[in-house]
What we know:
The structure holds two protein chains of two kinds. By secondary structure, chain A is of the alpha/beta class. Chain A has one domain (about 5-205): P-loop containing nucleotide triphosphate hydrolases (Rossmann fold, 3-Layer(aba) Sandwich), CATH 3.40.50. Chain A contains seven helices and eleven strands. In chain A, α3 (about 95-105) packs across α4 (about 110-120). Chain A is globular, with a radius of gyration of 17 Å. Chain A starts with a strand and ends in a 9-residue tail after the last strand. Chain B is mainly α. Chain B has one domain (about 1-220). The two termini of chain B are about 30 Å apart. The interface between A and B is medium-sized, with 31 and 26 residues.
Amino acid sequence: MPVIKAKNISCQRGYFPLFEPVSFELKFGQSLLISGPNGIGKTTLLESITGLRKIQQGDITYKDASLLNSKDEWFDQSFFIGHKTGNKKELTCLENLRSFLTIQGLEVSELQAENALQQVGLAGYEYQFAGSLSAGQKKRLALARLTLIKHSIWILDEPFVNLDVAGCDWLLELLIKHLENNGILIITAHDNKTIKEKVTQELILKTFKGSDK
Amino acid sequence: MMPFISLVKRDLTLGLRKKSQIYQPLVFQLLVVTMFPLGLGSGAKTLALIAPAVIWILALLASLLTLDQIFKNDYDDGSVESYVLTSYPLPLAVMAKVLAHWILSGLPLVVFAPVLGVLLHLPSSSYGVLMLSLLIGTPIFSFIGSIGSALTMSLKHGGLLLTVLVMPLLAPVLIFGAGAVVESSLGNSASQHLLLLGGILVLSFTLVPFAAAAAIKINLE
């Protein structure tokens, strides 16, 4: 039984459709890699799937209910990390991690947050302001949320960007573990070949050629 | 309730670390107020006459300095997603943001108002009404400003546009707010003006969160 079904969805920027309509189905434990050249609309598609944008054409259903109607359940089950990390530069790493998740309704104790930071290799940075971190460390701080959440659907936009080799390995391991635990993963990544081998489906976006009407 | 409190707490922590959101409006008010006696060149009587209007207009302008920050920073760093992509109602998150903004930028204006009153020779009997009217009025600034801030959050320099959008909506607040202080300085009862001001506050408290939430969603699309 597919959990997520997307039928003929397409996204627009202004009045222009970005890519040929795409369809996919995902069961628990499955993953989807969205690829395509720069500017084709990968991020736009991901943001539409998460619910940040409206889907202008086609429909996505979650557990057979359209996302247009059952947003709350979808939001409770899906977790999105985009290009913007969502870290506040005036807050420390620990505060960032905790406040972000508490605002999402997930209580995180200090100990849990410290553990999560340790896992992403930010041990010792707990009380450093996020503004003083490097780009890769900021990404790690955002990804640390993944170790604390219980959402079954992870939607990640270019999570490997800015990470070093060790970071990529760690993330890959985390994603594989998530899939083994029957999680669902929707991801974009174009410079990582290993993830290509691990995902169950790949969706290549193609430029919109014009309608057949 | 947890997301609400933690959002307020986070914004207060941010405000107390940056501080400019708190002292900028106050310094601005103080600087402008000291110019009035110099520019007018006349005595205490004229100053007392214009004091209610000046203090209220300054409160309005000082609020405008920080209004665009309500949602802009969150949009820029992406943390707006933390309260948009949840099942927690967005209007409640808007209320949390507005509350935090008011505590950081509105409340200091209320507390600081008597200082401006002294500088402008406002009769000391009106200080109570002045502070009370600002106590009701400044939350309205934050509420209505949040719509403007949500509408302009994706713009790089949305400050002027926000002012143009919000100023007409805040004109009634200014009329009743300054009106209340004028009445009390003349020795009349200010209750009519204050009640109308309270009415506007209730109205914005109930309607604005929905409008601002809709504006946020438009901007993310």
